[in-house]
Amino acid sequence: MKDVLNNVAPAARRAFWFCLGLLALGLGGLGVVLPVLPTTPFVILAAFAFGKSSPQLQAILENSSVFGPIIADWRASGAIAVRYKIISITMMALVFGLSIVMALSPIILIVQAICMGGAAVFILTRPSASV
After folding, report:
1. How far apart are CA 46 and CA 28, in angstroms?
2. Whole-model pTM above 0.70?
3. Angle, vertex CA 1, rays to CA 55 and CA 5, nearest 5
């Protein structure tokens, strides 16, 4: 019985990390187009999770022309490229402006302001990388 548990447990752990990696990568991909979701933390989490479950997927992600530099900058110095900072803050401002123009309820505007403000503070307080 102990041998069975030893064989099942690692497989279950790999499956967990693999699923977490896929979820994080999907959210990171959405973060590219949705200003409320930060891309960098999800991509970093995906690389970490794939490192625990599938080194091949981790290598693909790290060698990706889109996500590879983000991971390398983060690992080197916890940095986010200025280009991505500008894009993120601009998109958040545009979405918030659109929400105001659409006359969304004050509650929604407050929630948006808090969430996007928190994301903006996080992004702006990270060191800048050169990409």
Report:
1. 8
2. no
3. 25
